[in-house]
Amino acid sequence: MKHISLVAIFTSLLSFYSTHAAGPVECFKEAYKQTSISNKGLAIQLCAGAATIAPVSCYKEAYKQVAISNSSLAIQLCIGATSNEPVECFKEAYRLVAISNAADAIRLCAPQKTQQCAK
Question: What is the pTM of this model?
Fold first, then answer.
């Protein structure tokens, strides 16, 4: 029987958790300190599960848009974003006659979270 040192296991777990926690934590810090988001709950909503600070970048860009001046709508658009593509999609969709309100354009353009089944 092979024995694995506790140090090796601890180091491996620490590396795993620090890598996976850095994205959401960095995103939250950026959202809470560098944007108009003054509510920690909204910053958490924006950054939960984020791998990078891309949702914050998306939010900042979305908040600049006249049609998305409501921070809650900008957050809805950018949750799960990996780039500013949702904002570009929103700008294009909002120009369409058939999509005349921000909520419909957000539903069309916001990244969709996929459900993952536990194995």
Answer: 0.72
